[in-house]
Amino acid sequence: MDKEVVGEVRVPAMGGDGENNNWHNGPMLGSFDDGLSDVIPMLDEEKEGEPDRLYVSTNQSTVVTVDKDDDDDGLSRPLLVRRKTMNLTSQIAIIGSNVCPIESLDYEIAENDLFKQDWRSRKKVQIYQYVILKWTLALLIGASTGLIGFFNNLAIENIAGFKLLITSNLMIEKRTYMAFMTYASCNVVLATAAATLCAYVAPAAAGSGIPEVKAYLNGVDAHSILAPSTLFVKIFGSIGGVSAGFVLGKEGPMVHTGACIANLLGQGGSRKYHLTWKWLRYFKNDRDRRDLITCGAAAGVAAAFRAPVGGVLFALEEAASWWRSALLWRTFFTTAVVAVVLRGFIGYCRSGNCGLFGEGGLIMFDVSSSLTSYSFPDLMAILSLGVLGGLFGGLYNYLLDLILRIYSIINERGAPWKILLTVCVSVITTCFSFGLPFLVSCRPCPESLKDSCPTIGRSGNYKNFQCPSGQYNDLASLFLNTNDDAIRNLFSGGTDNEYHLSTLFIFFAAIFFLGLITYGIAVPSGLFIPVILAGACYGRIMGTLLGSICDLDPGLFALLGAASFLGGTMRMTVSVCVILLELTNDLIMLPLVMLVLLISKTVADCFNKGVYDQIVKMKGLPFMEAHAEPYMRNLIAGDVVSGPLVSFAGVERVGNIMHALRLTGHNGFPVVDEPPFSETPELVGLVLRSHLLVLLNGKMFNHDRVATGTSELFTRYVASDFAKAGSGKGLKLEDIEISEAEMEMFVDLHPITNTSPYTVVESMSLAKAAMLLRELGLRHLCVVPKVPGRSPVVGVLTRHDFMSEHILDMFPNIRSLNRNDVRTAVSGTPLSGPTDPSGVESVSND
Q1: How would you class 788 by CB atoms within 10 Å of its CB: exposed for 0-12, middle for 13-18, buried for 19 or more?
Q2: Is the dihedral of CA 427, 432, 433, 439 positive or negative?
Q3: 488: which of 108, 295, 462, 790 lies 20 to 30 Å off by Cα?
Q4: Where are the transmembrane segments (predicted)?
Q5: Domains detected in the chain
Q6: How far apart are CA 514 and CA 524, in angstroms?
Q7: Is the pLDDT of residue 65 over 60?
């Protein structure tokens, strides 16, 4: 087989499968694994007579070139030209407005000799210990998340309550200017503190955190998304942001907080902060951490909404990409622990021991109704509400995507600009919430009212604001309250005339606008509360307008409006339905809430994806969808493998390994045995970068190129030595010192090689390969040849090779071609027209 020289690397011309194709002594095809890599130079100078050479290659799809003398009628041109040979896309993401490299998680168990020996040596007591530890960690995750959720609520209620109480007292004293300055100063100080934490301490803590958790559970690992510093900033930044009066919620951050707690406990602490627990060595793998983080995400929802069943369903429907019955039991147990912890502390606070926290319960917005039947006008109004929620949801997601793209440009300028943007949004929010109530007229207090009117204190439905005695400002009752109290006011029943239509219209427009400009600033922020507020507002508007023909209370319309907007933006149905029912304690409304959610989701799906899916895509996180793109069925696995990929011999030179690790970002390397270790080149398996680092650090080297076996390895290492490190500084290539003499020595890779990697034949459809990678939670998928006589491995596929931007960048016209055209174009055979008289296609290496 002819070879052409590219720099110092011998690269075989594609298209030949002859007997001279000695791939063990040449390059192999492959793809970028994880991280950023450049074109690889020569890894080692060629030395004559040494059969253990290490080579790299770039994969080229065969591209037919047509001679200029041929009749060019347009049909003889290849329809599909591969423009790229390397995957440089979909390998970086935006985390906390910072661009950083991303990697995949090792959900697959590496079944090497060391793992098998460890598994055989485990005693029954160790297995029981492992099971008990799993349930113990679920208990600790639930208890910790419940405590932090209670602490967040307690801090927010007291800080915001103190601020609102001072503002209310100043307004009663008719000191309007002083009230505004006090209110604005408190908001700006709290916002600045939260933004400073996010900008300088943990940028990954900004935003909701749900997209990052969702991507992590899909197999994407990005820098610091679950670090202890992120947990710290998520807690205190959320307190500052919500207390500052922003139109945001603490629910999304609580999901991220629960995931961070689970990660901290599951990895055995943090090496960076000297917090480690050796007894958690069983959980030093991504598979078990994934289950724990799923429990943490469910616990976060349970703590935020006090909805334990809703938390389990949220993890099942939205967060987790893999699910099984055993995980269902543990998440349910975790959320049950959260509910018990919250009930205990809330019961303690009912006696007034928690400051301005007030009386609370597991039911946040009790709107129990006695309605047992629905009339035809009620159903028609509910159908209209569902359609309206879908339209508003699609519009909200579209506008939010535009605003987040603008914010990303601002945030890229650095931390001071993040803080400045946050302060500007805080000032706008303060002006809206304090100034807009002056636009509405005062309303007389309702007669025969059990509650005090006007309300004296930080909360209540009847804020006095600038009104005289005996009257209240209904818009101030919504703005100058915590977001939870505002929702409670809108959901309250038997208050048909409490809010004027103009008030509801103004509040809806303001919340819709403020919710859009608030999400994306450098503070922990959730989307649930702004969406519930806006949806409840237009739902109450419809209930007020249709009050003469519908029997439903405006408060119930507000609940259905919130459900419709949640369905239109989040695109979740079952979990949102149960969360709302647990929030309101109104099971009678179950059929109506289900109907509204289904309609709103169906309508909104006609326009765009759910808000979290959009954010995942915008951040550049390589999320593997549950269904492959249709055009992937027109491609095969061999079409998208791209280079360079580095392979090792079973017994490899230390210098070659060091050069490969230093010059590539690959995390998995095929291991190929060749003579004298095998009669013909054969794929032994796959070895991970992390395992190579441990082996090199131990310096189990030999002067001769011989297989040492496993006995020596078992005496020096145990399986936990090769376990994945937790957060903080793990073993890096820079930590390993290899002398020049050791560079010429050899190391046996067989004991640490995963001898049973998942493989697919190169002719498998790309869609089928994508589903295999996702459903099994794989990081690497080896592509093997369809016919013998070639290299034992054609390439390695990772999640980056299945990303749409990567495929469409290689094959720009693939969407417009049918299957036959695509296969003809990719294989390099023109659909019609003249061919090369010699019968040999000319090959172009891109």
Answers
A1: exposed
A2: positive
A3: 295
A4: 127-148, 154-172, 184-205, 225-248, 292-315, 327-346, 379-399, 419-440, 501-521, 527-549, 556-581, 587-607
A5: 3-91+629-827 (3.10.580.10), 127-618 (1.10.3080.10)
A6: 15
A7: no
